[in-house]
Amino acid sequence: MTGAQYPVSLVAWPGAVRIIRSAWPPIDLFEDIADPADWPLLISAEQKTNPRLMETIGNLDLVPLARRVGGAGASYLMSPFTHVSPERPSRFSDGGFGVLYAAKAFETALFETIHHHARFMARTAEPPGWTSQFREIVLDVEAALHDLRARDRAADPLLDPGSYARSQDLARRLRREGSDGLVYPSVRHVEGECVALFYPDGGSRPVQGRHLDYHWNGEQVDLVREAGSGTVLRVVEAR
């Protein structure tokens, strides 16, 4: 299984969408105007007064210097790569390296995050109610990515909705071969498309969009509320 088996497509999505938990605040270092090449020196200096700094920044060594990005909104691009853990695997990572996931459309990003939040809530004993706050990040995606969109979503093990074993293995191999990531059909939203970026510079111009609240009814996420306007959206089966 090598990258040569998969076509590479230039993906250019202005206004792609990523939805993240609101618990993660922006990281000052990444938002600073300093050149990313100077970050190690700034970290060394600031650690003298803030020994817990690295808990906020994460492992910067996981991102090659040439692929780091800085400036306004850069936290949303860098954080998925500096905060990784084997306890948080995903479709295209076993937790040993970071991946930035984004969808071409808001609805797709919504269904993707609803699925994972519902799985988390099902493992808790929390009663029904408005549970967690999320924020919408709107960004531009431009990268040459290995393309899985022509594959059979219903039968291909790379797109198995319940197992990530084959897709993680593919991602490890592609990344070692120098891939910038993948574009693939969403398995949570029919006709939806997603990207899995292996480096932060595949995205640009991230800005914060809506704040969202998810409602858990004891079995599933059934409502989404736009915190700013108060608009409540009912979640129906993805089609």
> What is the overall silhouette?
globular
- What is the averaged pLDDT score? 87
Assign a percent range to the helix content. Answer: 10-25%
Helices and strands: which structural class? alpha+beta
Question: Biggest β-sheet: count, sense, barrel?
Answer: 8 strands, mixed
Strands, count? 8
- Uncertain residue ranges: none
Measured distance between first and last alpha carbons? 31 Å
Q: How many structural domains in the coordinates?
A: 1
Specify the number of helices: 6
Question: Strand content of the residues, in percent?
Answer: 25-35%
Tell me the Rg in angstroms: 18 Å
Order of helices and strands: EHHHHEHEHEEEEE
Overview of the molecule:
By secondary structure, the chain is of the alpha+beta class. The protein has one domain. The chain contains 6 helices and 8 strands; from the N terminus they run E-H-H-H-H-E-H-E-H-E-E-E-E-E. Strands 1, 2, 3, 4, 5, 6, 7 and 8 form an 8-stranded mixed β-sheet that branches. It is globular, with a radius of gyration of 18 Å. The protein starts with 7 loop residues before the first strand and ends in a 5-residue tail after the last strand.
